[in-house]
């Protein structure tokens, strides 16, 4: 009887071995990143650590850890799925992180990676930053438009302890995932999920803060997506011919749903020049993040009255 074919798991013993192997396989396969990682090294490290239930932001302490044969086989199988399917790693592992906070994900929702997570949690909006929200306890009502997995609504509830947060999405499938995340983070009493098109289910409500990460990718760019991005719901990306159809609708309606001292925080990708040309009288405040330059704006309720 012939001996079984050798497996890479026979020789790859430590986490360092597995990460190195993953990087080599991913580079050879020319994968695309951008769903929480930017390089083959980061992708392989995330997949190894998450699959082993280890902290995903701490690779160094575990590099020389020796794995069981079963653990090694599981990780190698995940690497091969990543290459064969071209699905983003968070879909294969069912988990994504924003600023170290975990959220469930699957193909029903876009993978969380909004720049707004950094702005909410990093202090940029507060008294020691831009001073846009000097007192987090003064926010008693917030709205998250295009909530997807519910991650930003949950982060808003964490950041603003007195706020009741409404979270709206057009996709009932996405809201099913958001419901799981709300339960995971014990936010059932703070976050209310609403099904509908932007402000449609919110008649008569007003908020101290509206946050929005709407679809903002132009149609031609969506059509040219690599397989990793094609795995995500088209609805979560497609923003019309120039990518800004939904952004325009938010600008047109948000003022009606804000309290007098409220504000809108909105992520729009690379459409700054187009928006500024279309609304020359609106004093957009553009906010940079660690990974973005001029892709997020702030407007207060008064300024939203100038968009016409």
From TrEMBL:
Keyword field: Methyltransferase, Ribonucleoprotein, Ribosomal protein, S-adenosyl-L-methionine, Transferase
Domain of life: Bacteria
Single GO cellular component term: ribosome
A GO molecular-function annotation: protein-glutamine N-methyltransferase activity
Ribosomal protein keyword on record: yes
UniProt-listed PROSITE patterns: N6_MTASE
Keyword DNA damage among UniProt keywords: no
Limits of the Methyltransferase small domain: 141-221
Signal peptide as annotated in the record: none
Gene3D superfamilies named among the record's database cross-references: Vaccinia Virus protein VP39
Top enzyme class: transferase
EC number: 2.1.1.298
Gene Ontology BP annotations: methylation
Matches recorded under Pfam families: MTS
NCBIfam families, alphabetized: hemK_fam (TIGR00536), L3_gln_methyl (TIGR03533)
Descriptive protein name: 50S ribosomal protein L3 N(5)-glutamine methyltransferase
Organism the protein comes from: Phreatobacter aquaticus
Gene label: prmB
């Amino acid at each position: 009887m012939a001996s079984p074919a050798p497996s890479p798991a026979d020789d790859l013993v430590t986490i360092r071995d597995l990460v190195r192997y993953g990087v080599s396989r991913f580079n050879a396969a020319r994968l695309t990143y951008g769903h929480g990682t930017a390089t083959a090294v980061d992708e392989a490290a995330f997949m190894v650590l998450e699959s082993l239930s280890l902290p995903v932001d701490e690779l160094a302490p575990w590099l020389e850890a020796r794995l069981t044969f079963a653990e090694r086989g599981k990780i190698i199988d995940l690497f091969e799925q990543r290459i064969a399917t071209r699905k983003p790693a968070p879909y294969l592992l069912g988990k994504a992180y924003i600023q170290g906070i975990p959220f469930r994900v699957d193909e029903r929702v876009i993978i969380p990676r909004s720049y707004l997570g950094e702005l909410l949690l990093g202090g940029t909006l507060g008294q020691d930053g831009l001073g846009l929200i000097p007192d987090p306890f003064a926010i008693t009502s917030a709205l998250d438009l295009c909530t997807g997995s519910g991650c930003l609504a949950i982060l808003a509830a964490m950041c603003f302890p007195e706020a009741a947060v409404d979270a709206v999405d057009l996709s009932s499938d996405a809201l099913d995932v958001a419901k799981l995340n709300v339960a995971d983070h014990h936010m059932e009493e703070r976050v209310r999920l609403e099904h509908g098109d932007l402000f449609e289910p919110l008649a008569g409500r007003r908020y101290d803060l509206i946050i929005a990460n709407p679809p903002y990718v132009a149609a031609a760019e969506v059509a040219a997506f690599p397989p990793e991005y094609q795995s995500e719901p088209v609805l979560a990306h497609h923003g019309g011919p120039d990518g800004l159809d939904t952004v325009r609708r938010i600008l047109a309606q948000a003022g009606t749903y804000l309290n007098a001292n409220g504000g809108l925080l909105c992520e729009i990708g690379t459409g700054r020049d187009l928006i500024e040309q279309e609304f020359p009288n609106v004093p957009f405040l553009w906010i940079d993040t660690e990974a973005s330059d001029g892709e997020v704006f702030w407007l207060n309720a008064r300024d939203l009255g100038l968009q016409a």
